[in-house]
Amino acid sequence: MAEMRVGLGYDAHRLVRGRPLILGGVEIPYHLGLSGHSDADVLSHALADALLGAVGSGDLGTHFPDTDPAFKGISSLVLLERIMTLVREKGWRPVNVDATVVAQAPRLAPHVAQMIGKLAPILGLSPDAVNIKATTTEKMGFTGREEGIAAYAVVLVEKLG
Fold this sequence. Notes:
Layout lengths: L3 E13 L4 E3 L2 E3 L4 E2 L7 H13 L5 H4 L12 H14 L2 E11 L9 H12 L6 E6 L5 H4 L3 E12 L2
Parallel strand pairs: 5-6
Antiparallel strand pairs: 1-4, 1-7, 2-3, 5-7
Helix pairs in contact: 1-3, 3-4
Cofactor: a divalent metal cation
Catalytic activity: 4-CDP-2-C-methyl-D-erythritol 2-phosphate = 2-C-methyl-D-erythritol 2,4-cyclic diphosphate + CMP
Pathway: Isoprenoid biosynthesis; isopentenyl diphosphate biosynthesis via DXP pathway; isopentenyl diphosphate from 1-deoxy-D-xylulose 5-phosphate: step 4/6
């Protein structure tokens, strides 16, 4: 039986005016965007942390610190590609991903297929192995008050060869 591991990732960013809202590499039409050093894509960040955790390689901030100007405004898909290189170099590959984005608004369901279309090729997975869900908190907490958006991701990886 193949060696397998699970990683869990979480990220949250504040919603602000004057920034695009990027989730899973997709620009979502909305009057607010996420504040951060990179594009602040909480879904990609949670997924990146889940991958790093599964292969025992720390977290996103360790690899791409927000104090490094090289990462200012960078696409989180680029960061995810770099993490996938590390994952493969360590001898692992993703098997499947399950993620949840927590946001009171905007409605994300119409954009999920496009997010999967962006993420699956980077992960080397078929679209049916990448599951993304969206939920609200029924107006409770920082996401419910539309102060920010959060994401959780779980990834299963298996040892290559």
